[in-house]
Write a structure and sequence with these properties.
Length: about 110
């Protein structure tokens, strides 16, 4: 397996709307499944650094459960205040096919 890919969870652990905290290479990440796609975003909101876990997910965005900032799951961009910055680490995720069909993998993507 390439160094750029990491198996981080089994598909059986993720269902629609499910969120999961992971730590990977020192980064704290929130995994989400939404409308059949998988996303990995910074665990902490850029507003007051509280965790995004438990935030509602709708129309491709997660809403921070503390003060309501919204972030795009695809690119981490701020969609609603009060967050001042985009999320700084967004990973691209893909299902891990073939021999490990139960798993999925992530590849570090561009920082925003
Ligand atoms: S901590 Fe997320 S909006 Fe304040």
């Amino acid at each position: 397996m390439s160094d750029n890919y990491h198996i981080v969870a089994a598909l059986s652990e993720m269902s629609e709307g499910h969120q999961m905290y992971i730590e990977l290479d020192g980064e704290e990440i929130l995994l989400c499944q939404h409308e059949g796609e998988y996303f990995a975003i910074n665990y902490f909101c850029s507003h007051a650094e509280f965790g995004l876990e438990g935030g509602s997910i709708r129309d491709g965005c997660i809403t921070c459960p503390y003060h309501g900032a919204e972030f795009c799951l695809k690119d981490g961009s701020v969609q609603a205040p009060p967050a001042p910055f985009h999320l700084c680490a967004v990973l691209r995720c893909a299902r891990f096919a073939s021999q490990a069909s139960r798993g999925w993998r992530s590849q570090p993507g561009s920082r925003v």
